[in-house]
């Protein structure tokens, strides 16, 4: 359930997206709010500026959280973001241990506004293969 406090922080994330556009960057903004609702960090999309496909604000903040927050705090931290996280960012959010994401615009709504946003090709994946070889470094690492 989205509360009035959530809406206020979500508006701040949308404001970060608007500021990103004013700076010539893509229109996406995010922030992390700690357990008490305090803003811990903010970011906006800098993919073009940084020439870095991973420079989404959600992934930047997930990486920040993984570095800077202990596990218990991360689990009680909420990410507020102007758009629903993409698959890359969602994976980073899960791995960072963040407890919640609140977003303004769904992926479907984004694609409706900008069809190119959903025009990613499928990538062929073949495997698994070479189990007996591939398992050796995994077993060596997790055995210690």
Q: What is the compact description of this entry?
A:
It comes from Actinacidiphila rubida. It is built from 7 helices and 4 strands, in the order αββαααβαβαα.
Keywords:
single chain, 144 residues, Cytidine Deaminase, domain 2, 4-stranded mixed beta sheet, 7 helices, 4 strands, globular
Overview of this structure, please?
This protein has 7 helices and 4 strands, in the order αββαααβαβαα. By secondary structure, it is of the alpha+beta class. It has one domain: Cytidine Deaminase, domain 2, CATH 3.40.140. The protein has a 4-stranded mixed beta sheet, with helices on both faces. Strand 1 and strand 2 form a beta hairpin. The protein is globular, with a radius of gyration of 18 Å.
**Overall form:** globular
Tell me the radius of gyration.
Answer: 18 Å
Side by side, the strands of the main sheet go 2-1-3-4
Classification by helices and strands: alpha+beta
In CATH's first tier, which class applies?
Alpha Beta
Give the amount of beta strand, in percent. Answer: 15-25%
| Total helical elements | 7
């Amino acid at each position: 359930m989205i509360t009035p406090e959530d809406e206020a922080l979500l508006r701040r994330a949308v404001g970060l997206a608007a500021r990103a556009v004013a700076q010539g960057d893509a229109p996406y903004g995010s922030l992390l709010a700690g357990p008490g609702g305090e803003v811990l960090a903010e970011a906006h999309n800098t993919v073009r500026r940084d020439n870095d496909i991973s420079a989404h604000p959600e992934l930047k903040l997930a990486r920040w959280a993984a570095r800077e927050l202990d596990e218990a705090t991360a689990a009680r931290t909420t990410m507020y973001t102007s758009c629903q996280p993409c698959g890359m960012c969602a994976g980073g959010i899960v791995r960072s241990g963040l407890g919640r994401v609140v977003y303004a615009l769904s992926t479907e709504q984004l694609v409706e506004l900008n069809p190119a946003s959903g025009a990613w090709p499928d990538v062929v994946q073949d495997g698994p293969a070479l189990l007996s070889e591939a398992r050796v470094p995994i077993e060596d690492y997790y055995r210690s």
